[in-house]
Amino acid sequence: MVPRKGRKHVFRVIRELLYFASSTEVKSSTQTDIAAALEYMNQILKRRATVFLISDFLAEGFERDLQIANRRHDLVAIRLIDPLEEQLPSVGLIELEDVETGETVLVDTSYDEIRETVSENVMTQKSALEKMFKSIGIDFIDIYTHQSYVKPLTRFFRVRAKRFH
């Protein structure tokens, strides 16, 4: 795809990525390796570029690589959030699995304390990530999986356009 400017092109790129992800069988490890992706990007992109990094950012150990990538490029983090991760529903016993480690744990979601603890932990992680993005100087967008991505992206580009002009 030829690089172009503009919101319309960004939406086309996102649409193509979503189509590719849904129409092909992507074979990958279950481990998210943001650091490796950023290292690879820095090797292949020789000139400064605007880069959209799309992830849930639940991995660890990628802060240094984010800093390096952000110095070389205009890096924008798009964090995908499942609302069920922020607020567990009260549905009784559920088995939760860490997709990356395969570790499973049985959780009784009928207890308010458990749901509140999970929510607090998620919000703490979310705040720490936002603090890291801000300290590095990376723009970021939160996109919830149960909502359209159009409004958050449109809002982001409006704010960004005002800041740069």
Describe this structure in words.
- The chain has one domain (about 5-165).
- The protein is built from 6 helices and 5 strands.
- It has helices spanning about 5-25, 35-45, 65-70, 85, 110-135, 150-165, and strands at about 50-55, 75-80, 95, 105-110, 140-145.
- The two termini are about 25 Å apart.
Concise account of the structure shown:
With 165 residues, this protein is α/β, with parallel strands linked by helices. It has helices spanning 7-23, 34-44, 63-72, 83-86, 112-136, 150-164; strands at residues 50-55, 74-81, 93-97, 104-108, 139-144.
- The strand count comes to 5
Strand order of the largest sheet: 1-2-5
How far apart are the first and last residues' alpha carbons, in Å? 27 Å
- Tell me about the largest β-sheet: 3 strands, parallel
Strand content: 15-25%
Number of helices: 6
The tally of domains stands at 1
Low-pLDDT segments, ≥5 res: none
The secondary-structure class comes to alpha/beta
SSE run:
HHEHEHEEHEH
Give average pLDDT, whole number. Answer: 85
| Helix residue percentage | 40-55%
* Oligomeric state, counting identical vs distinct chains: single chain
Radius of gyration (CA) equals 18 Å
Overall shape: it is: globular
Please specify the SSE layout and strand pairing:
Layout: H1 7-23, H2 34-44, E1 50-55, H3 63-72, E2 74-81, H4 83-86, E3 93-97, E4 104-108, H5 112-136, E5 139-144, H6 150-164
Parallel strand pairs: 1-2, 2-5
Antiparallel strand pairs: 3-4
Helix pairs in contact: 2-3
